[in-house]
Amino acid sequence: MDVLPMADCQTLSVTQACERFVVMSTQSGRAFSAMGKLHYALGKMLKTAKSRTIYGELRKLGVSNSTISNASFASKVWEMLVNTNTITEAIYDRLTFAGCRDLCRVLGISGNKPETKILKPEEVKLIIDRFPSSFEDEFESLAESGLSCVERETAAIAAATAKVEADKVKAATPAVTIAAEPAVTTGATPTVTTAKAATVAKTKAVAAAPAVPTLVEVLVTLDAVESAIGKLSAEDQLKAVERIVELADLLTVPAKAAPAKTAKVAAKAAK
User: Is the pTM here over 0.85, yes or no?
Assistant: First the structure.
């Protein structure tokens, strides 16, 4: 088949270019599925042959290693799914190179080490039946993330929501800054001073110190605790309040400020 020159492409209308693209895509897909079948057949033929391999035979005819390797993905899919009557040859003929590669990955037969098997052959059939027009999208998502398309989208939404909430908390938390101390010089030659060393030490100490919860985080936690206490039995609520009263003794605020709050909580629990 002759290669289509760019000069010819530029003479086509949009409709003609799209139609030609569809024709080429169909021919390419058919050629790839046929190469997969031929690769599988050659493997069977050369299985008992000495010193003869698929790569060796095809390389002699000028076929590149990458082309042979690509066809091997389709060959593996044929062996694993068509040979076992899991899928039909008609379904196989619809698979693209990317689809075959992703299928090999989720089936754990891609040849990459270590292999991670995500699906069984019968599960592949279920996905094809469930998503007849988009099953390759499902295999791609599973191969890349281990999640279906819906699960991947849900996880992305959850991650984005969590980031928004984290940014809100971060925005409400005042940043800790350390003022730079002036350097002390002797004569005209600048030197590393003890003041600078102390600043570096302070910075490292702040970075190494455990994170201190913000007021917003504490209040959110307390709201959750209050909600949880409300769901307990009356007996368990009193036990929880007793623990809260014990914690009140640990407050660093003046003692007279604590009883009013604990009394309020105790009264709510007693209701």
Answer: no
